Amino acid sequence: MWLEIICGLIIYKFYRCFVSSDDDDVLDVETSDSKALFSVGDRLAKLYGGKVYVGLRIPDADTASPQTIDLVLVSKGEAVVVSVKNLSGLVSVNADGSWVCESHSSNHKAHHLPDPVLETKKQASILESYLEQRGCALPQGYLSCKVILSHPKVCTTQSSNFPSEVVTYDQLMQLKPEPQNMFSGWIKGAFRGGKKEMQESICQKLDFILSTAPMWDRLELEGSKYILGEFLEFKGKKEDVQALKSIKRSKIGRLVVQKTSILGFAPSRLQVLYSPRDYRSEGASASKWMEVNVRSSTEVLFQPENSSKVRKFKLSSVVSMSLSA
């Protein structure tokens, strides 16, 4: 019996390594940027005790198209628009404010970027207009912006040429939650001197508006991999797709995939938990979760942000999925 089990494990591992489809594997290059967003967002939330909104798509009246904003940090007395640049290599700034990133590898050409600080300030202006349209006019100086270099292998030359809005990776790692730390000026608390009731009112309005604002769908995969993009549909056996038909962005905000395996074998069926969308609260209570069982071969069709390629992911590799309204 044990010999059969061991042989089965060997065959399964062989299948996973050599036979399984590449469509189920996400290249690091496709997930590294999204992972950097969530990593920076988690760190900022822990440091400043606020809420962080990732992957917002704020309507831009000038271009009639959504403006993607990496992160918005809402803390007491301030909101910060954060652009995360996951650059690896030597970064320098030109006289016109544009950046050049030269990779450590000789096989890669220099990467040129338009002025990230100017772009982030524009995003902050678009967000401020959007908030005003939804009935939340911010006091002057309440909204600021920052550009964070999130990659540990980034180097900067002539750091004095970088605007004060730029936070390097080393500076990010040195940030402390104490307000007296040397970098705390970027969470300057411009409005902290105001009335506590007014601060709380603005924070509540911001939290409600940003939690209901358009944003990219979010796919979390095994191995702490994240992808921002757009969920399209489920693919698989007819009865499985039919069982999942209730999971639509108009009705469902989040689903969680639970799986059990025996001795390393992939489960044949999965339990999918999902909760009805409710704008009145941040999440559903345990009593509101509903479940459906489907085959593990069922697939999720998802189009990553800034990609024209639609990817297929087996539901067995998915941890959770969040859908924008």
Automatic annotation (TrEMBL):
<feature type="domain" description="NERD">
    <location>
        <begin position="32"/>
        <end position="150"/>
    </location>
</feature>
<dbReference type="InterPro" id="IPR011528">
    <property type="entry name" value="NERD"/>
</dbReference>
<protein>
    <recommendedName>
        <fullName>NERD domain-containing protein</fullName>
    </recommendedName>
</protein>
<dbReference type="Pfam" id="PF08378">
    <property type="entry name" value="NERD"/>
</dbReference>
